[in-house]
Design goal:
- The protein is 30% helix and 31% strand.
- By secondary structure, the chain is α+β, with helices and mostly antiparallel strands.
- The chain has a five-stranded antiparallel sheet.
- A hairpin with a 2-residue loop joins strand 4 (45-49) and strand 5.
- The longest helix is centred in the C-terminal third of the chain and has 17 residues, at 59-75.
- The two termini are 20 Å apart.
- The model has no long low-confidence stretch (mean pLDDT 86).
């Protein structure tokens, strides 16, 4: 299953048109090609799909979603958490830009 968990933009490389985002403590690179130039700034919360930022979301909504995801993770046992991470890492739709 591929989930679009809110991610916070922590760095932008305008030369490569990519951003580094933090998703619940995990940093990854995402393409900015689907966004209007200059519309994404460091500190914005965004949603990703197949390695690209697809839209910005309101910080309050992002933080509420992250709180709910954290509650879900806390209810899972260690094996379920491990499997969830593996499933997400091996999502066939995820590709690096």
């Amino acid at each position: 299953m591929c989930l679009s968990i809110p991610s916070k933009v922590v760095k932008i490389d305008t030369e490569k048109n990519i951003a580094t985002v933090d998703t619940m403590g995990v940093q990854r690179v995402a393409g900015l090609d689907l966004m209007e130039e200059g519309s994404v700034q460091v500190g914005d919360y965004v949603l990703l799909h197949i390695g690209f930022i697809m839209n910005k979301i309101d910080e309050e909504d992002a933080l509420e979603s992250l709180r709910v995801y954290q509650e879900i993770l806390e209810k899972l046992d260690e094996e379920e958490r491990r499997q969830m991470v593996l499933d997400d890492d091996n999502c066939p739709s995820r590709e690096a830009p």
